[in-house]
Amino acid sequence: MKTETIQKYDRGVPRYTSYPTAHLFQPGLSEDSYREWLSAVPEEMPLSLYAHIPYCDSLCWFCGCHTKITQKYKPIREYLAVLQKEILMTADVMGPGRPVSHLHFGGGSPTILIPEDVRALFGTLREAFSFTADAELAVEIDPRDMSQEAINAWAEGGINRASLGVQDIQPKVQQAINRIQSIEQTAQVASWLHQAGVHGINMDLMYGLPYQTVESVLETVRQVMEMAPERIALFGYAHIPALKPHQRLIPEEVLPDFNERFEQQEAAAELLGSYGFVRIGLDHFAKSDDPMAIAFANGTLRRNFQGYTTDKAEAMIGFGASSIGCLPAGFVQNQVPITTYKSTINKGNFAVLKSIPFQGQDKLRAAIIEQLMCYHRVDLALLCEQYSCSPDLFRYEFGQLQDLASDGIVTLDGSLISVTDDARALVRTVCAVFDEYHGQRERAYSQAV
User: Fold this and answer.
1) Span 97-120, pLDDT tens digits
2) Rounded Cα–Cα distance for residues 187 and 189 (Å)
3) What gap in Å lies between CA 336 and CA 348, rounded to an integer?
């Protein structure tokens, strides 16, 4: 695809890990209403749980997460006590022993927890919920703060998948993003995970970072392949200093330009393909026998706030400051400031700050966007049939798609909409066509490529 065509559509757009997107959530959901939303989840419906640990011991300048830097463990232990209280409060409202098919620990850095607190947290979760035999339990790992003892504690808790943050192996790049991490550290943690029986290993890489080149990105991929990961996430760095002021510490003049970013992404994807990885969605890669590749092949791949996932649960409950949940009635998000979150939970109240109930065409449009994000195609007539409506509902959107089709971004075959292979980096731009709320509120989004 011509560079000028991609640049034409390389707009700031949401990442579409939800629909409606998180910036549309509004204050106002009462304590009683949230309890009703929780209670309304059918007893037999498997749950997905997310636990947010919003602490790190140093700040990575590329970071876009809600996190707090601390060199002391006391605030972490105090936070953990409140997190456990929230978990038990939730189980009390929903009823104990609800089935859980997926659990994800995110951050910040969940692995900042010491082993005894890891065990205590798992004890609380298993007291409150019942995990299915095939449940996936995943944790995000910062290899810089891990010990073998800590790995063993997470494995004892039942972790069977781990995502190791790598980003880039080049010292100059690491210095520019304030994340010094040797390849030996990462390899040691991967080895400990395998020894502990955790073989579902993901590696998180980035392109578009300061001083990166096509060759440096490829060298990172080659080095990471030595650790035998099952999955790779290849994220584009989102430079949004208006929302994340610490990103101003990264000089913009050393960031790769548009053409370089695109070449880095495509070159890395080609190299990963040569290693036998299946390209999935916008930025994921998996071995052909990995559950994610299997889900992609059989049409059950999903997308949520953790990105691409095999998680089929229709209800997700978020625990911790800033965490987001998805219930049959709508999305909810907890208080972001840790002090506010803690004080609210300690008073015996849930810490939900914002929400958005599903209404109108939200679930249909969410399904359309999810199909596009996962498979780069959607059969509009088929989905409309499932939601008991006519494709004529989207006549306006089809008009917008004609422009994209004329520029080779999509192909239209009756009700089948497909993003062309050359334009897969612009899939979020295509999704925005079906976003009924896009542009209604000002927001600084990351670029599509």
Assistant:
1) 999 999 999 999 999 999 999 999
2) 6
3) 18
Q: Which residue reads 């925005």 in tokens?
A: 432
CA dihedral angle for residue 177, residue 108, residue 290, residue 271, rounded to 10 degrees: -10
Percent of the chain with pLDDT over 70: 97
- How far apart are the two ends of the chain, measured CA to CA in Å? 13
The CA distances from residue 407 to 6, 266, 430, in Å, are: 9, 20, 12
Residue ranges of alpha helices (H) inside 196-311 are: 214-225, 258-274, 291-298
Q: Which of 156, 140, 137 is nearest to 148 (CA)?
A: 156
Torsion sign (Cα): 221, 307, 342, 115: negative
* Contact (Cβ atoms closer than 8 angstroms) between residue 28 and residue 295: no
**Residue 296, SS3 per DSSP:** helix
Q: Which residues contact 184 (CB under 8 A, 6 or more apart)?
A: none
63-to-167, 250, 260, 307 alpha-carbon distances in Å: 11, 11, 21, 16
Give the type of residue at 337. Answer: P
The identity of residue 328, as a single letter, is P
Sequence-separated contacts (24+) of 399-402 with Cβ below 8 Å = 400/433, 401/430, 401/433
Q: State the Cα–Cα distance between residues 247 and 442, nearest whole angstrom.
A: 20
Contact 159, 123 (CB under 8 A): no
Report the alpha-carbon distance of residue 209 to residue 255 in Å, rounded: 6
Do residues 405 and 411 touch, judged by C-beta distance below 8 A? yes
Residue 43, judged by CB atoms within 10 A of its CB (0-12, 13-18, 19+), counts as exposed
Question: What does DSSP say about strands 377-379 and 352-357: parallel, antiparallel, or unpaired?
Answer: unpaired
- Residue 213: how many CB atoms within 10 A of its CB? 15
Assess contact for 233 and 261: CB atoms under 8 A.
Answer: no
Give the distance, in angstroms, between the CA of residue 236 and the centroid of all CA atoms in the same chain: 13
Using alpha carbons, list the distances in angstroms from residue 157 to 120, 141, 152, 327: 9, 15, 9, 26
> Averaged over 435-442, what is the pLDDT?
73
Structure tokens at 160: 């069977």
The CA-CA-CA angle for residues 300, 304, 306, to 5°, reads 110
Triad 204, 206, 210: Cα angle to 5°: 145
What number of other Cβ atoms are within 10 A of residue 321's Cβ?
30
Which residues neighbour 187 within 8 Å (Cβ) at sequence distance 6 or greater? 226, 227
Does this model's pTM top 0.90?
A: yes
Length of the chain counted residue by residue: 449
Task: Identify the pLDDT of residue 236.
Answer: 92
Record the tokens describing residue 307, joined without a space. Answer: 């990105």
Question: Where do the H-state alpha helices sit in 180-230?
Answer: 183-195, 214-225
